[in-house]
Amino acid sequence: MDKFRMIFQFLQSNQESFMNGICGIMALASAQMYSAFDFNCPCLPGYNAAYSAGILLAPPLVLFLLGLVMNNNVSMLAEEWKRPPGRRAKDPAVLRYMFCSMAQRALIAPVVWVAVTLLDGKCFLCAFCTAVPVAALGNGSLAPGLTPQELARLLARVPCPEIYDGDWLLAREVAVRYLRCISQALGWSFVLLTTLLAFVVRSVRPCFTQVAFLKSKYWSHYIDIERKLFDETCTEHAKAFAKVCIQQFFEAMNQDLELGHAHGVLVTATAAPAATDNAGEEREKLHGIMDQGSVNRLLTSWHECKPPLRLGQEEPLVGNGWAGGGPRPPRKEVATYFSKV
Questions:
Q1: Chain-centroid distance, C-alpha 77
Q2: What are phi and psi of 323, to 5 degrees?
Q3: CB 164 within 8 Å of CB 158
Q4: Helices 92-106 & 48-69, crossing angle to 10 degrees?
Q5: Residue 317 β-bridge partners
Q6: 134-178: per-residue pLDDT in tens?
Q7: Integer-rounded Cα radius of gyration of the chain
């Protein structure tokens, strides 16, 4: 159990590296999925383009959504975007930075899918087989004898070698090589453009907007850390609250029971100081919030009017929000002396 706890703490402390690794694994998985995928072109003039567009666009969209779902900052971004301003204003630059950071990682797997699809050429061949220039690559003298519908029906069977019967008009191997060459050229151009775009976004952009970039990055990390610490504090409070409630329940039950023998009295008297000390420690963790209504008001106040980011200027929490006219008054220290007589 300790090993799993250590691994979990390591992943939490290295969240960015962990998410980069997850995105890399998804990219490799997308390439393996395409290689294992059985591409079956319908070889019909009205369906080839629709089928190819679905294969080229639908899986990248699914991979992009999966990349966003696996990023735990999505809920944090949605919460920060939809929360009421309250005592703390929302910074659009921070929201843009958080979204761009998540989108950059989530786009890795879709980019790999599109690049592999174009480099393979099957999808492009299925989509544009009816646009092959027969006059330049085949026997153009026979093409005028066919109607446009018959020519499209014949060329739509180019991706399917078992049913293609138009070698007398256009050799299938010539059409396949022609379209795959164009598809691979588009694929390498897509890889080059995405690489240059990633370089500009990751390297050049912070150089021109360094101050704004650092501010957005800092407050993005702050929101993430604040949320984690609040969740941890809520967990400790809930645990202490439940423990005190259970102790009070058993103490009340113990008072209703009659202790029939001296051994029971001795055990109760011995265990009472330890139980009292534990209850006192748990009460300190409650911070004075000891009923359901106070807890609900606290959570509502945290969501609707978070405290301003000014250390030392917090105002007391009153009712359902933050109220008060200024900083808290200084506490008076009282010293008590005891003398042994």
A1: 9
A2: -140, 165
A3: yes
A4: 120
A5: 322
A6: 888 877 666 666 788 888 888 999 999 888 888 888 889 999 999
A7: 34
DSSP type of residue 42: -
DSSP 313-332: ----EETTEE--SSSPPPPP
Q: Kindly state the DSSP code that residue 307 receives in the 8-state scheme.
A: P
Distance in angstroms between the alpha carbons of the first and the last residue of the chain: 54
Residue with tokens 């369906």: 47
What is the spatial distance between Cα 31 and Cα 20, in angstroms, rounded to a whole number? 17
Look at residue 19 in the predicted model and tell me its pLDDT.
58
- 131 CA to centre of own chain: 41
pLDDT tens, 51-107?
999 999 998 999 899 888 888 788 888 888 888 888 888 888 899 888 988 888 888
- As beta bridge partners, residue 321 has 318
Q: Distances from the Cα of 223 to the Cαs of 50, 63, 92, 101, 228, in angstroms?
A: 44, 27, 13, 14, 9
Q: 66, 26 in Cβ contact below 8 A?
A: yes
